[in-house]
Amino acid sequence: MSTVEPTPRTDAEPMAFTKDEFLLGTLASWLAFNLVFDTVLTGAAIATFNPLWGPLGASIVALVVYAVPIALVVSGIVALLLCSAAWWLGRLLRRVRSLLVHAVAYATLGTAIGVLVVGSFQLVVAGSLNLGNWLAQITLVGSAAALPLGWGWSVWRCRRIEAGKARAPRRGIDESFEDSL
After folding, report:
1. Band of the pLDDT at 2, cuts 50, 70, 90?
2. Model pTM score
3. Share of the chain above pLDDT 70, in %
4. Residue 68 and residue 177: Cα distance in Å, rounded?
5. Range of the domain at 31
6. Torsion sign across C-alpha atoms 25, 31, 33, 35
7. How far is CA 64 from each of CA 24, 60, 77, 79, 155, rounded to the nearest angstrom?
């Protein structure tokens, strides 16, 4: 039997969320970061291409073979380790109805996470902090954009489901069985 998880949103807490909605937002933020990071990194590689480095196609293949998988893994680990910060921010903002306040708060958190990750990496590997280099800037832009994009998509999806314009995810037979225990 398929049942939909009831909405936690009330007049007092219009932006409350369920665990599933949070996890979906986290996944969407991770995907958004990788989409932004990989797109901007590829654009920067094309814009700064020098024929002395070899064919342009080889540079793009190197990005796809090396940079994209590294970004996927590292950002996945960061998302797993630091998603609790987004959860706490969401809990703090559950009574705030303004989407702009949420977007700014999540962009700020994304920027802080980017500075923490890039700064930690640079201090450990290079022994100095330089947030102005091109790779750090691309990472910071991706981090700042990813959280509000993932959060925004998750909110948009939840609102469509609640308005009856989209189908809610179905519960599997194993979930129904576990709930019956």
Report:
1. very low
2. 0.83
3. 90
4. 39
5. 19-166
6. negative
7. 26, 6, 19, 21, 31
